[in-house]
């Protein structure tokens, strides 16, 4: 089985190999490596090397030091990149993976050629942002079944097979962990910290996203120097899955500008 062993965990991963510039994919809290089903063929065809892994506490990754500190997902990614010899790479992240992507790009800017953040809460801790997030996520929304919260209504209406496959991946992805086993960013995410971003960033929002709608993601994008912003029509929180052709096209155009 393809595993990379780093401190405290064995990370399950996929790697298409080849001479193309690497693209590292970071999955959502509702997913795992299998979530990138519709991205790998398109990115391979465009000439990129595709790398994805199940983050600590997700999917097929295995904790090797149950009593040890969970550390940060950014440190895991840095150790993972070192192990695979990934000098510089594009980072493509969705939802909770976007929190990791922003933290990592700010901590290790020399590694990241470009960063794509799709449909993400972003982890910003400024009170003005948290107030918006709290208004968007009352109990009525938080208590909905996850497939209703995260998969847009248009997709659920016309693609029951795809919806069932998304839910199957979600149900098998997340481990049961105690609160003390959860990872945190290396540093708190704030608007002031985002203003120091040196990496080119594209932010994408699904126009039907209940959790991270365009207006909320623009609040963050406006604090990132030179950030590009786009939306995916009719898509919910799982925009990369619901509208892969549109999503892939926007991401490939952006990262292509910054180097293959």
Write down the oligomeric state. single chain
- Percentage beta strand: 15-25%
Number of strands: 9
The gyration radius over C-alpha positions equals: 17 Å
End-to-end distance: 29 Å
- What sort of overall outline do the alpha carbons produce when their principal axes are compared? globular
Helix content: 25-40%
Explain what you see.
This protein is an alpha/beta fold and 260 residues long. The protein is 38% helix and 18% strand. Strands 1, 2, 3, 4, 5, 6, 7, 8 and 9 form a nine-stranded mixed β-sheet that branches. Helix 2 (73-84) packs across helix 3. The radius of gyration is 17 Å and the shape is globular.
In short:
This protein has 260 residues and is of the alpha/beta class.
SSE topology sketch:
Layout: E1 3-6, E2 9-15, E3 22-26, H1 40-45, E4 49-53, E5 62-63, H2 73-84, E6 89-94, H3 96-107, E7 112-118, H4 127-136, H5 139-142, H6 146-150, H7 153-158, H8 160-173, H9 191-194, E8 201-206, H10 214-221, E9 228-232, H11 239-242, H12 244-257
Parallel strand pairs: 3-4, 3-6, 6-7, 7-8, 8-9
Antiparallel strand pairs: 1-2, 2-4, 2-5
